[in-house]
Specification:
Length: 395
């Protein structure tokens, strides 16, 4: 049976909420610290990019090669919006040229994370500046993403060469955040094929990745020949039947983001189910463990999953009817998360350091454990902008 929000959690959120002026002060101070970190890292990385996760608290520098590079460019656009400072725009526009080359040369694009790459770097640039180069790059990336669509299963294949039998028929919950690129491309070009593929994929995710209890699989396999559903599995979680925290956060965030594009109110209802499961599994300080099977003990927290969930809760709350009884609870939960992150998970003030500490990239593979993760930094900064102003989403 889908979970409702635990009454004890609701009471905790109500009792723990700060006066509005204190929330505003917290957000302003946290945003100022975050922009100072972006400045340090802009000087440190120049036109390079931070690696996906830090090593000893510092991100290695890299070229435009990883699935995560869009998060850094997205942070530059967020910093530009927050401050109006031209240095952020100038750096981000240089990145746009790099992203344009990347899709044109098909450099490391055999995956579905083109939305993470191009929504935050190029769709954002087009929305903010009207850049034709950015729009062209985003359209090229959307076409590459559409190539990964498997019509029999109605999904976008997550990873690998499309002819690789090990990867064929696999979708993952992360792709919820890649779909907005397809909706944007459909609106920009007038071609319904992008939108139709995104609608089919989110329908498959809702039906097969979300379990009856409100938890989620990380990945789900379909028979590539017939399109028949096969089984769910994890890739980065604790076990196939556990609930990887970052995957749950992708679901909380992605379903209402897609609702904003296709208007399917069932996606809001589904996001509420996922949000309730997530909030019911949090430890006392409200920052999740790396897998939601853990609610106490010595396992690592994942500040990056918490930051994604905070943005998702804000997106969900903003799209719910004003009289929805959980609307304010989700808003309070997001504020509480951001407060905890700003007060207890802030990164060290060093060049190349992350905005947030205590994140987890890939625990089963031993990568980025108790480090900074660049997507966590991005979503933390996005949450601060959402809380400080009326913000137009890049997604």
């Amino acid at each position: 049976m889908p979970p409702s929000l635990n009454p004890a959690v609701m009471e905790q959120l109500k009792n723990g909420s700060a006066p509005q002026r204190d929330d505003q002060r917290m957000v302003e101070q946290a945003l100022a610290r975050a922009l100072a970190a972006v400045d340090r890292n802009l000087a440190h990385f120049g036109d390079q990019f931070p690696a996906p996760s830090s090593v000893g608290g510092v991100y290695p520098a890299m070229g435009n090669d990883e699935w995560t590079n869009g998060f850094w460019t997205g942070m530059l656009w967020l910093a530009y919006e927050a401050s109006g400072a031209p240095r952020y725009r100038e750096a981000a526009e240089r990145h746009v040229l790099s992203f344009h080359r990347r899709q044109a040369e098909r450099h490391n694009v055999n995956h579905h994370d083109l939305g993470f790459l191009y929504s935050l770097s190029c769709v954002s640039a087009y929305k903010l500046t009207g850049s034709a180069v950015a729009a062209g790059a985003a359209m090229g990336a959307a076409r590459l993403l559409l190539e990964r669509y498997q019509p029999r299963a109605g999904i976008i294949q997550a990873w690998g060469d499309l002819n690789d039998p090990e990867q064929a028929g696999r979708m993952i919950i992360d792709c919820n955040l890649n779909l907005p690129l397809l909706y944007w491309a459909s609106a920009y070009s007038g071609d319904p094929a992008f939108r139709d593929a995104a609608n089919r994929h989110i329908e498959a995710a809702a039906r097969h990745i979300v379990r009856a209890d409100g938890s989620t699989f990380h990945t789900f396999y379909f028979d590539p020949a017939s399109g028949a559903p096969r089984h769910g599995k994890t890739h980065q979680g604790h076990a196939d039947d556990s609930c990887w925290a970052r995957g749950q956060a992708w679901g909380i965030s992605g379903f209402p983001l897609v609702y904003r594009h296709n208007g399917d109110t069932r996606l809001l209802a589904l996001s509420k189910v996922l949000a309730n499961y997530y909030l019911n599994r949090l430890p006392e300080d409200g920052i999740c463990y790396w897998d939601l099977i853990f609610t106490s003990g010595e396992e690592e927290r994942d500040s990056s999953a918490a930051a994604i969930a905070a943005c998702g809760l804000l997106e969900l709350s903003n799209n719910l009817p004003l009289l929805d009884p959980l609307r304010d609870d989700y808003q309070r939960a997001a504020l509480r998360t951001v407060r905890q992150l700003s007060e207890h998970y802030q990164g060290d003030e060093i060049p190349g350091g992350g905005l947030l500490r205590h994140a987890v990239y890939h625990k089963p593979h031993g990568v980025g454990i108790d480090e900074s993760c660049i997507w966590g930094d991005y979503f933390y900064l996005e949450a601060l902008l959402r809380l400080s102003r009326s913000w137009t989403s890049y997604w």
